[in-house]
Design a protein that fits this description.
By secondary structure, the protein is α/β, with parallel strands linked by helices. It is built from 9 helices and 14 strands. Belongs to the ABC transporter superfamily.
């Protein structure tokens, strides 16, 4: 079972929002779906869900077109949140779960489990508007996964959350994926994508510019870097042939290099300074690949 996007294009009169993209996501995998604001991510999600008509191409899930017949097997957390502020938490979740075809007894069981797991059980009878922004975010995510969807689309699920709650929700998403749910995960937090996802694709102005397994994308990108954890400045590093770029902060030096041979030359310099906490040759991060392909993250 899989999600297949084949040569899909979406045009609005003279504007092309998505241009001839193709990808396949196998059952149980998690795809990091990345792009700058306006790159075409939300348009693609809406086409997958059948909410926006496709201009050209085909999208199928398990070999059939997505329509109302399989909506109950899909979950979607949009970037623009949409809870009913005057409703109580339990009533909101029960209403949304009922729309997904769940039975009352199963709904009660799942609500109790997830409110306990998300550490918000005391908010069960509170109105949505009385909750903090972070707890509203938890309810929104919970609503998208309460019915244990086969396919789940998450658009910035952890935005606005503190680190403790981010870890709490990441764990829930990972467990859902481990249980077999296929997930499309969109975020500007590249480190979360590297941690959670199997595959990644990057959209730039509606074009698919990167697609593949994360390990392959990183290995094939090209330039590696040397990371040196030290308080020394080591200005000689800039002069080493094959060093493309050097960045420094208070704790480390990161030098982008043409090849691992260059790392040997840098190591010769480092040894003259004595002890350093770390010397490591690393592949490019998704953050670096993203910037290289499309520019800054929040543009």
């Amino acid at each position: 079972m899989s999600l297949n996007i084949e040569h899909v294009t979406k045009k609005y009169k003279n504007f092309t929002a998505v241009n001839d993209i193709s990808l396949t996501l196998e059952k149980g995998k998690m795809l990091g779906f990345l792009g700058r604001n306006g790159a075409g991510k939300t348009t693609t999600f809406r086409m997958i869900l059948g909410l926006t008509p496709i201009t050209e191409g085909h999208i199928t899930y398990n070999g059939i077109k997505v329509d109302r017949a399989i909506y109950n097997r899909i979950g979607y957390l949009p970037e623009e949140r949409g809870l009913h502020p005057k409703m109580k938490v339990e009533d909101e979740l029960r209403y949304l779960a009922t729309l997904k075809g769940m039975k009352s007894k199963a709904i009660t069981k799942e609500i109790d489990y997830w409110l306990e797991r998300f550490d918000i059980k005391e908010n069960k009878e509170k109105k949505i508007e009385a909750l903090s922004k972070g707890n509203q975010q938890k309810i929104q995510l919970l609503a998208s996964m309460l019915h244990k969807p086969e396919l789940l689309i998450l658009d910035e699920p952890f935005s606005g959350l503190d680190p403790v709650n981010v870890e709490l929700l990441k764990s829930a998403v990972q467990d859902l994926n481990d249980a077999g749910t296929t997930i499309i995960y969109s975020s500007h937090r590249m480190e979360h994508v590297e941690e959670l996802c199997d595959n990644v694709c990057i959209l730039n102005k509606g074009e698919l510019v990167v697609s593949g397994a994360i390990d392959d994308v990183k290995a094939n990108h090209g330039n590696k870097s040397v990371v040196i954890e030290t308080h020394h400045e080591m200005p000689e590093i800039e002069q080493v042939p094959g060093v493309l770029k050097v960045d420094r902060n208070k704790r480390e030096i990161k030098a982008m290099i043409e090849s691992e041979y260059v790392a040997e030359k840098i190591y010769d310099i480092v040894t003259k300074y004595g002890f350093v906490k770390r010397f490591q040759v690393v592949e490019p991060t998704l953050n670096e690949i993203f910037i290289d392909k499309v520019g800054d993250i929040h543009g």
